[in-house]
Amino acid sequence: MTEILVQAGAEGHVPSLTRVVEHPAWPVLKNAVEQIRPWQSKDGSIDFEAEGAPSRADAVAAVGRVADAVEQLSPLLPHDAAYHEALVRDLHRWAEGGFEVPDFLDSLLAFQPAADRADGLQHLVVFAMYTQNGNLDRNLEAVVLRMVWPDWLAELERTRYDNPMFCGITFEDFTSGYDTNSAVLFPETIAVREAPERFSWGGIFCDREAARFRRVTDAAVDILGLELPEDIAAMVDDQKRCEEAFVLWDMVHDRTHSHGDLPFDPFMIKQRQPFWMYGLEELRCDLTAFKEAVKLEADGVPQARDVQYAVLFDRMFRFPVTGDRNRNYDGLGGQLLFAYLHKHDVVRWTDNKLSIDWERAPKVTNQLCAEIEKLYRDGIDRPKLVHWFAGYELVSTYVAPHPGSKWAKGPDALDLTQPPRKLVDDVLPDEFPLSMFFEALSKKLKNVIASCKGITADGAERIAA
User: Fold this and answer.
1) Could you count the other beta carbons within 10 Å of the beta carbon of residue 403?
2) In angstroms, how far is CA 85 from the centroid of its own chain?
3) Range of weakest confidence among 37-46, 95-104, 113-122, 450-459
4) Cβ atoms of 295 and 244 closer than 8 Å
5) How far apart are alpha carbons 331 and 282 in whole angstroms?
6) Average pLDDT over residues 327-343
């Protein structure tokens, strides 16, 4: 994203010319948070009897430094004044309460980034939270970010893809919980005394997504000997283009969870289903973004073609070989997409080289989207367990299941006297193992994927240089 130093004003506030990370209070805040994090237990509390624990006075002083720094930085961000005031109160209350399980509900409710999605708007965010795909402990974290909301994206959201809670964002700086693979800022991850009735925002770091996409795609293309069309190669080489592709992809993906037949819980935390159903849901949302990008390309939207190849490459190259094989639903979605395209002769792996039929790729990818949509539509008239088996049949048509799978043997291999949620326990951790193609690719890409931990746009540009 192009650097923007002039801060967009909210409600008549005076714009700021100062980047938060350049203010002397930011390193003070960051260092204080890093001092506190190792003291915290998994739930965010501090056990003063534990080995290596600080004195209560040291903990109070460290939290005080965080609160003081927030107060010094807050004038740079007048649109977040109410949030920062509530944040300081929550920090002091945590200290005064003896550093038990932290509660940031008041400041969470005061933080409303989706209310003003001005492009380039800075936010300073401090919460006790876990970072999805990063750190599972509810540590104190601090992150400075900018909103990504260019006019073309705002117009698409207003006219075609209403998504009032979606926030495209980029990193300015962050504490250790984001020096990981996490690329989201979700309110569900924040330590609170009770969950709010509803959430009003969700943020996705398109710069990290774009940077790791570029690094992994560049390596995969080289490993597989894939010849890219000139315009696609230029996209992979351009961080800004990739960020724009990802922010559009994410906006359409995010809204798709609650649209169409059988809407899912967007964060998939209230439903216990076999992991292939989660894989199909995530893939459905990605392929809907792909399908919409095909339409947008026909309408002349410049970013639309980039979205299509971002979806294809990230899904086919990175997703299947990222993370462990314990019910890896994102990995399975990528396996299914590749296998479907391979079965329909859109991708070929011959002589250890991959080729893609670029002309047929959009049509056949949309065919897979249509098959998943039909699964969902037909599922309305099915009992839950029958629907799960139908999903299994769709996946296993293209991705071979583990030979020891009970589910692969059909209903007679399962104890159907149990409720469906109990039958999830009969799913193998790696129900759909990697194919020989992905086994080979995984060995060659594992170090590249590991190098993406904590990556930002700057890191991607260094690699490109």
Assistant:
1) 8
2) 29
3) 450-459
4) no
5) 10
6) 97
Q: Which residues of 344-373 are buried (b: 16+ CB within 10 A; e: fewer)?
A: bebbebeeeebebeeeebbebbeebbeebb
Cα distance from N-terminal residue to C-terminal residue, the chain? 17
Please check the confidence at residue 16 and state whether its pLDDT lies above 90: no
Contact between 210 and 174 under an 8 Å Cβ cutoff? The reply is: no
Place of tokens 């890896």: 328
What residues have CB less than 8 Å from 143, skipping those under 6 apart?
124, 125, 171, 172, 173, 174, 175, 178, 185
Beginning with the edge strand found earlier in the chain, give each strand of the sheet holding 202-205 in spatial order.
122-131, 135-148, 166-174, 202-205, 184-185
Cβ–Cβ < 8 Å for 373, 280:
no
- Cβ neighbours, 10 Å, residue 173: 18
Mean pLDDT score of the chain, rounded to an integer?
93
Nearest-angstrom CA–CA distance, 342 and 344: 5
pLDDT at 13 over 90: no
pTM for this entry: 0.93
Q: Is the pLDDT of residue 306 over 90?
A: yes
With tokens 């740079």, the residue in question is 76
